[in-house]
Amino acid sequence: MNRLSITDLPLAGLKRVERARLGDARGFLTRLFCADELRAAGWSGPVAQVNHSVTAKAGTVRGLHFQHAPHAEMKLVSCVRGEVWDVAVDIRAGSKTFLRWHAEILSAGNNRALLIPPGFAHGFQALSDDAELIYCHSAPYNAAAEDGLNPRDRKLAIAWPLPIFEMSARDSQRPMLADSFAGVAP
Prior knowledge:
By secondary structure, the chain is mainly β. The chain has two helices and 13 strands.
């Protein structure tokens, strides 16, 4: 029995994952990750790293982060408390949807996750206080391969749903995309 329902989104390789919730008077059980079910959606190999984040204030933006090849990673992003507006930006060199973005609301109540392939930048805006995320990564973090895009970059024109309350200095100081930016190898 499949516990994950996987839907293709408008950017090739980007998927929405909806989880079945099995519950009774005691509470519920939800499967967060299943390699067998996610393999058909492009997940290959083990989970190399699992991260947990809490964002204290609604309006805060984190991201847009990615890792360069050969450390590029696939991410499965889930919200387990509160609500976020989760964004993936296609930065794959030669992609038909290069620099287009797609966003999904992820919340503790809707049991959705975003499966983000290599070659995408990822970020989110907290829509509630104390938004809590769990990320499964296909590759471990590599500081030398880390990079990101400025969430306010006009070339991306991301329509953040709330005024940006807070961002890290690192994210807010990232340069705007140069006209010469041709993308990354996934």
